[in-house]
Amino acid sequence: MSFPDRALGSFLGLALGDAYGRPLEFISGARVRTAPVPIRPGEFVWTDDTHMSLYLAEAVLAQGPDRLNDDSFGNAVGAAFSRWLDDPLTRSTAPGTTCTAGVRSWRRSRDWRTSGVADSDGCGAVMRVAPLGIAFAGDELDRVAAISAQVTHGHPNASEAAVATCRLLRAALEHGRFDAELVETVIARQPGESVVTDALRAALREAQGPWDGWLDEAAIPAGDGGWRSPSALGLAVAAALRWGADFATAIEKAARINGDSDSVAAIAGMLLGAAGGSAALPSTWCDAIRDRPTITASANALVARGQPWIAVADLHGRRDRLEALAAWAEVHRPAARLALLGDYVDNGPDVPGVLDLILQLSAARGEQLVAIAGNHDIACSRALETLGTPEEAFWTNKWQRGHWNADGDTPSRYGAAAGDVAELAKRMPEAHRRFLAGLPWFVDTGRWLFVHAGLEPGAIAPQLEVLQTRPAREGLHYEDGRDRGLPAAIRGHTLDRSADPGWERVVVTAHSYHQPPPAWEGPNRIALHANDTPSEDVFAVVLPERTYLRLGADGTVAVG
Predict the structure, then answer these.
(1) Residue pLDDT, tens place only, 198-229
(2) pLDDT tens string 373-382
(3) Residue ranges per domain, the chain?
(4) Domain 308-449+515-559 has what CATH class?
(5) Domain 3-304, CATH 1.10.4080.10 — does that match?
């Protein structure tokens, strides 16, 4: 199950819970336990929880690709919610009074920091956060959660509950599970004792302790049945933990309460959908839900921003570093896709081992791994391809003299005589040759652009058109007039700190030395420190949160 599928499950799960709880929200007592919920197209419709989430997604998608700007995001949320307030559909979705008051306040002040209703920690702050958990991670996730809450809800409990909800959601998305251990981890990160912390602890007790078949609303602080953010989160967590093996049962239990039925069920739905993906959702419910294509399109667009990646700088025959990273990712970032930024051959101890491992990981992970070409890889491949042709001398000389350190030749790693390209052609497995020859020169994810060396400032599209053709050496000259054989985006150290605030992607590269490591960052640019010395560390970056990893010669993976 992939991160995109879990993201879709989360957004749809929110809508399904919201729609199930809609006819139950304003009834109570024995009736709320037995009232029918029609699950038919045209009747199974969501409320303001899902509606605001769709507008919040618009604010997320309006952000640039680079690091988050709090004011830009806060104002985008205010503007999106203002459009929500004017939407003719809104009046039919039972919009909350605090949400509408907060949006009107933002319209007057245009200040997201002060627009929220000061004394309100209502559940509107947490019911709509699915787009945030899909699109953000790390410190940025905490910030967008708090900002989104502040636009409409000014009480600190609202922001704290929104942050906790987003942390739970992101963890479920990345790990594909929702359980007590995950909740305990989020509790451990709480800023201190608070009603939000109490609600989460009570949710664990409620999920694990004696019960009479229904949620005990009074047991979850502040005992208000989910009308406030802390209790809405606590009740949803308790339902998701207690009945999470069956989505429909969990949603029914979350919704059939005397409080805010649709919001508690919506939160439970987003958490369980994140853990189980779309396969966990009842197909009849999905078929009946209103505007499923709109929700699907929104979730897919958010994935382009929030999909976890680990980008890895030049490996140069250091198989042990890649093995250590793969093992670390399996535990700590199991949903992350790996992006290998090129230069697998030359100057390291185990070039065959690196290529074997990449092929094994690719077979096991499928689209979860992408690898692009570096200048060393292309030089190797072209030296092999041009044997016996007029180009042989150029590429053999270019590879030998321009890419190998002392004792760093690739032929000897395959058992050929040092520097013997013709013998290497006989010894290198066909799978290795096909891999090197078939490497793309860049990968564009929609937010991140992975390329080996860099791009020139200015429009990206024309540069990618050139790289797409995988040009031969004719016409590829540097300012000194020397024929380098490859375009600067693959070979050029002159681009090691090129950046452009106007780029519509963050360009992520390796190839060059940057002191101090692990990377140099500029506008829309991450340049990982790279080296080709066997004893030195290899660097990687976890995206989107930009956590840097140091892959040591001792097999360790150091974070930060």
Answers:
(1) 999 999 999 997 777 899 999 999 999 999 99
(2) 999 999 999 9
(3) 3-304, 308-449+515-559
(4) alpha beta
(5) yes
